[in-house]
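Milestone 3.1: sequence recovery, worked example.
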C-alpha cells in the first residue's frame, strides 16, 4: 500500500458566514418564538427545527461521502492536485 500525502487546506472565515437567506430565516424563527403563547406552539417549532437540522446534516454527510468516493475513484496526479488546492486557497485569500 502506498503512503498518502496529507494536504492541509485552510478555510477563510468568510467561507462559513451566514447568507442573507439564513439571516432572514433566523430572524423569522426568533420573531415566531417571541409570539409563542403555548407549549404546543413551542413543541411545533422545536420539531420543525429538529427536522431541518437533521435534513441539513444528512445533506452535508451525503456530500462528504460523495466527495470521498469521487476522490477514491479518480486517479489523479498528486502534484497537480496539490497545485489545484493551492490555487483554490489563493482565490479564497483574494
Amino acid at each position: 500500500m502506498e503512503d498518502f500525502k496529507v494536504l492541509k487546506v485552510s478555510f477563510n472565515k468568510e467561507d462559513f458566514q451566514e447568507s442573507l437567506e439564513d439571516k432572514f430565516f433566523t430572524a423569522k424563527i426568533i420573531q415566531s418564538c417571541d409570539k409563542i403563547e403555548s407549549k404546543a406552539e413551542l413543541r411545533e417549532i422545536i420539531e420543525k427545527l429538529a427536522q431541518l437540522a437533521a435534513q441539513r446534516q444528512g445533506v452535508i454527510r451525503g456530500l462528504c461521502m460523495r466527495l470521498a468516493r469521487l476522490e477514491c475513484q479518480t486517479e489523479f496526479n498528486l502534484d497537480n492536485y496539490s497545485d489545484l488546492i493551492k490555487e483554490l486557497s489563493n482565490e479564497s485569500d483574494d
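The mean pLDDT is 81. Residues 20-93 form one domain.
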